[in-house]
Specification:
alpha/beta, globular
Length: 269
């Protein structure tokens, strides 16, 4: 097992990538604190993991606040005595899903909420985690979920893209600031194989865009042509690597996951 005994907090763990990582990390021996703004659903995720023999607690929390991250850290220390990995994965889609709102029409409160959850929440997450990791020493890993939108323009997702690019900047700066304490900071930046529910409220729960759209290699825009669709697990396995001691010399990295080379492809054929 790759996370034997490690104490891991995952935010946004009620569904989608956070839930899949919770299941994977638990199978790899992690002891978990799961948080989400949807308290009932994150409890359901925790119950599933417990039924499979995992060690897990859950709590409701709004990850845009410093308090929610401090509480998650306290919960980890209360239950397991320490914190090894803080995975800030919670995020909200660009406003207006499923039909995103053009930038110049976005209302101020929608912009503020997107920045508050997707960027400010990540800043608070790292602060709460780093304080605990510095006190307990030595080391620790802080991980974020950003997005392909951090690297390339996605139509009507400018505020979201700015937030995710901001988190990638946070990763690079904190790798410098916290490296002296042995704390590693990294991010995964997913593109494909993600929960369609994120932008499409009517999609079946925890199904990927590719499952929802009858994926085939020929129709896929990815340069990588393989006969299997990208999955949540393809993204989760990258998070597992960065969270584990296998990545003990990896810090300051923002890793595109499950994109099959799409981000490095020139648009022209
Ligand atoms: N699905 C995509 O299209 C996609 C693509 C690239 C990156 N991402 C990123 O992946 C991460 C996980 O998203 P997902 O695809 O699993 O979507 P999802 O909607 O299935 O999961 C996100 C979870 O975060 C929770 N959440 C939202 N706001 C919160 C808040 N303020 N406090 C606490 N929890 C909150 C939601 O309740 C949900 O359970 C996000 O950071 C998202 O930005 C998603």
């Amino acid at each position: 097992v790759r996370l034997a005994g490690k104490v891991v907090v995952i935010t946004g763990a009620a569904r989608g990538l956070g839930r899949d990582c919770a299941q994977l990390f638990s199978a790899e021996g992690a002891r978990l604190v799961l948080t989400d703004i949807d308290g009932a659903q994150v409890k359901a995720t925790a119950e599933e993991i417990k039924a499979a023999g995992g060690e897990v607690v859950s709590r409701q929390g709004d990850s845009s606040t410093l308090e929610s991250h401090e509480e998650a850290v306290r919960e980890a220390v209360r239950n397991y005595g320490r914190l090894d990995v803080y995975f800030n994965n919670a995020g909200i889609a660009p406003p207006g899903r499923p039909k995103l709102i053009p930038y110049e029409e976005l209302a101020e409160d929608l912009i503020q909420r997107n920045v508050s959850v997707n960027l400010v929440g990540a800043i608070f997450a790292a602060q709460a985690a780093a304080r605990q990791m510095k006190v307990q020493g030595p080391g620790g890993a802080i991980l974020f979920t950003t997005s392909a939108a951090a690297y390339v323009g996605v139509p009507n997702a400018a505020v979201y893209g700015a937030c995710k690019a901001g988190v990638n900047g946070l990763v690079r700066s904190l790798a410098v600031d916290l490296g002296g304490y042995g704390i590693r900071i990294n991010a995964i930046s997913p593109l494909y194989g993600m929960n369609a529910n994120f932008t499409q409220p009517d999609a079946p729960p925890n199904s990927t865009y590719e499952e929802a759209q009858d994926w085939s290699a020929e129709k896929s825009p990815a340069p990588l042509q393989v006969p299997y669709a990208p999955t949540l697990r393809d993204n989760s396995l990258a998070a597992l690597y960065l969270a584990s001691d296998e990545a003990r010399w990896v810090s300051g990295v923002c890793m595109p996951t499950a994109d099959g080379g799409t981000l490095v492809k020139l648009a022209r054929n």
